[in-house]
Predict the structure.
Amino acid sequence: MGRILHRPGGPWTGILLAASVLGSCLQPAPAQTPVTIVLTPPSPVVGGGVSLAPQPLPQGFTSCFWYRSATVTDPNSLILNYVQYPNPNQTNGPAHTGRETAGPGCALHIAGLTLNDTGNYTVAIQIPTAPNPVRSTVVLRVYEILPKPTVTPNQTLVLENGTFTLTCNSSPSANTVLWLRDGASLVPSERLGLSPDNRTLTVPNVTRGDAAAYQCEVRNPISTNRSEPSTVTVAYGPNSAQIDPPGPIALTLGSLLTLRCVANSVPAPSYRWVLNGTDTKETGSSLTFNSITQDHQGTYMCQAHNPVTGRTAWASVAMRVTGTDAPRPALSAGAVAGIVIGSLAGAALVGVTVYFLYSRCRNETPKENEAPVLVYENLPPTSWAGPVAQPGSPSDPSPTYQTLQPQQQDVYEELKK
């Protein structure tokens, strides 16, 4: 085909111009590099400062707006507007606290940080060549030196197969919470119930192995702290009891014996002892006999009762005593003293009685200054003058009397006195 000729100023000139304009309008705008906000320092501390800098900064930007929010729709969340060209200028908004300033590169500086400064921050950067501002959002977390956390309840008593719940109380700036049992970290399991932030620990279907000291540990990028132990006691039993030594027991009179009631129970049970069906009023876990007598013979029973679980267990043992006479117990010091005092009193009484009898007999004896007592004695008959019996005459029938006369005391008798 031949070449198409056209004259300047013909209809093709208008068509080509229109196509050129339309093609320029359809070309895509230059793509903008995503902007991120860099925190310096990355873990700001309460009382310190932080800088929020957009990077990379778009070329040709003229101004930026900072919002204390994840969006730019609420005008009350505007912190400030910073204009860099042609003259740097800052205009504060409703959310300005007096601690925020903007600098070169549209960086936002916040001094005197508090925990309330934690939150979302958004920057909107204006570029004359872009129809819409470039936006970026960052989450600012302000940290503090974590105080010592506490666990509530700080002590709990739970029944076996029951459930207990512990809560870790700490600063909101703690972004990590761990639980420990007897100093070892708890491994998450299906049985252990943890809240989404790990601040609550729930343990169902409690076993005896769950009795321990629990702690919570809190962490943030600048500190770590751990609570005091919280003691969990699991109450159980008694399911059974026994008496030590086991029976039957055979003893002799005067023997020593201690019976002990043994029961596996938490908390420790209360005890009661019964002999032959009669309460002995003994409430300790042991029963001691210093000298066995016949009265101690019989069947002993001990009762172990847990007031928390309400469980009660019994055990019994039979004791037989042999022998006919129990040894006499040794006298105490008081008894010995009583015997000595009684003996002295008896001796004194005997002495008084003897003295009284002696005095009485002496009063009945004649005194020396009175007349001597006459003592009579028999003397042989003496010849007397009378008729002389003739030979062959009959004898005198009259009786012959002996004469009694007082005895004269000689010198020997005097000396005998």
About this structure: The longest strand covers residues 312-322.
